[in-house]
Design a protein that fits this description.
Elements lengths: L10 H28 L6 H18 L1 H11 L7 H7 L11 H12 L3 H4 L2 E2 L5 E2 L3 E8 L2 E8 L7 H15 L8 H14 L2 H14 L6 E2 L12 E5 L4 E2 H7 L3 H22 L1 E3 L7 E3 L5 E3 L5 E3 L2 H9 L3 H4 L2 H10 L9 H18 L7 E3 L3 H15 L2 H5 L9 H18 L2 E3 L3 H6 L1 H4 L6
Helix pairs in contact: 1-2, 2-3, 2-4, 3-4, 7-8, 11-18
Amino acid sequence: MKTLDTIPTTKISRASELVKTGFKIGGNYLAYYGEKMVNPKLTKDKLNENNAEDIYDGLKNLKGSALKVAQMLSMDKSIMPQAYVEKFSLSQFSVPPLSAPLVRKTFRKYLGEYPEVYFDTFTPDSVNAASIGQVHKATKAGKQLAVKIQYPGVAESISSDLAIVKPVAIRMFNIKGKDSEKYFKEIEDKLMEETDYVNELKQGKDIAEACAMIPNLRFPEYYAEWSTDKILTMDWMQGEHISEFAARNTDQAKADKLGQAMWDFYMFQMHGLKAVHADPHPGNFLVDADSNLIAIDFGCVKQVPEDFYGPYFELVSPEVFDHPERFEEKLFELEILRTDDKPAEKAYLVKLFRELLQVSTMPYRYPEFDFANEDFFGRLSAMGEEFSKDSQLRKMNGNRGSKHFLYVNRTFFGLYSLLHDLKAKVNTLEYLDFLAKRSEAELVISE
């Protein structure tokens, strides 16, 4: 794969790259409409493929938050055409890495010396490159290590990158009104957290310690002496990405074992710690030779405040769901309903969210759930597409939902997607055993 000797870091240079991409997309549309005149039955499939490739080619050289947004979008298969999902999913763990000379220069800038001063061996070429940083393999005193190096200028460009993609996001997700800034601020804050490797090291250690009792789940050990806010050193964990495992696996028992570990891991974090690994894409999970799940990359951890956690999960309890007044009360607490809603708007939204909850909470309503269930995922996808085209919803006054929905929903739908890829059957009640152990563990993730 081609390596990069430089990355655009200024607002002007990064905007220029996106302008070039815009010209390419314009050319794609001209070609499409020209062919459409000759062949009226022509579909947009080829146009989507060309646009997805050009957009991804532009973003992969920018790296940082622009590429991270593409990664986030690729996790929701109902938002955009499949061509975009497939191309953007490459941002999860396969993008052009920095060249060896730029790696050495960057390493010395962040840690003060070249890699060979700290490690016995250090691979100059990246073994894994993603949106915010890339990973190199090293050894020290017989220990195999993974050294993650952040791309230059990533943290400094987050605000300007979001300003560039903001108009696109506003149009795509129908974000409007004076309170829309809370959503962008939530994304900006989480992206800034992901560029702080000192914070990631602490979060990784804390969650690994808190979740140590969960069977078939492993974590790397982190090394503060070889880490800074831009460099993170941890154990090298031998395994294959979970998507690669899922693609070749034919052993249902192994799939169920991994799926159960992942389900228990997320349920314990959400209900026991109220702090959750909020980046559940295939690049952040490995499978070892014994079919254990390995969780890595704790840069994005979402703290779930009690005033959101309570009404969010109370919505699906029979005591609330079956009582209209209490159900509406929780929708107000979650900022889905507003005091200025007209009666018809309120009735429409209540009906809409009842339908959404009936589908999205299906795994919780059975003691065991088969995530190979195509009907479940078909209904989720159809509902997402229906919402995106809902003209009545798009006309309503203002934005809907607490800012906490962004990463909590991303977490759950990312989890569902990974379990679906595995085709795992999961005991959805087992996490209660781990909640009972919470008081014994006496481990809490601090904000």
